[in-house]
Fold this protein.
Amino acid sequence: MPRPPRLTPPLPPRAARCFPPSSSFGSDKIRPRDLSTMQRASRLKRELSLLSTEPPPGITCWQSGSRLDDLRAQILGAADTPYEKGIFNLEIVVPERYPFEPPKIRFLTPIYHPNIDSAGRICLDVLKLPPKGAWRPSLNISTLLTSIQLLMAEPNPDDPLMADISSEYKYNKQLFLINAKEWTEKYASQQKRASKALEEKTNQSETSTTSESIMLKRKGSDITKKEKKSRLES
C-alpha cells in the first residue's frame, strides 16, 4: 500500500528588521552637506596658510576671531596713486557655498573711489556670479584681493558705484586726485593710525593714574582717621 505524501510544514515568518533599510546605524557614512563643509574648511585653511607664508605684495589677510569664514585683510595703497602710503582695512565674509559662490568683500576704511561706495561695497566683476560677473571656483581670496588692489590703482569709471566721483575722474582728473589723496590722509594714513593708537594709550594711562591717586587719597584719609582715633583713646 503506497505511503501518503509527506507534508512540509510552512516556514516561520522572517524576523522583522530592527532598523529600517535607510538607517545609517553602525555605518560611517557622511552626509553630502557635512562633506561640503569639511572641504570648504580645508580649502580656507590652505588659502589662509598660503596668504600667511606667501602673501601678494602689499596685502595681508587673517582670520578674525574663532570663525574661519570671518576674515580681515589690509591693502597698502600702491605708489604713484592717490592712495599711496594708506592702509585700507577690508572685511571678508565667506559664504556656505564657497567656492561655488564668491566671498563678500567690503572696505572698512573710507576710500574716495568711483567703484567703491560709502558703505565700502565694491563694483568688480570677479565678486559676482555669472552671467553678470566673472567669479569661478578656480579663483581664490588671494586673487580677489589682488584684483581689488589693481582696481584701486586703475579705476573703471564706466561701471561706477559713485556717479559723481566717476564724472570727476573722467572730466576733472586733477580734482579727483586731490580729493582721493585728502581722504587717504584723513582716514588711511599710517601717521593718523599711530597718533590715534598713542592717544588711546595715553588716555588709558591717565585713567589708570587717576584711579591710583584716588585710591592713595582714600588710603591716606583712612590712616589719618585711625591716628586721630588712637590719640583720642589715649
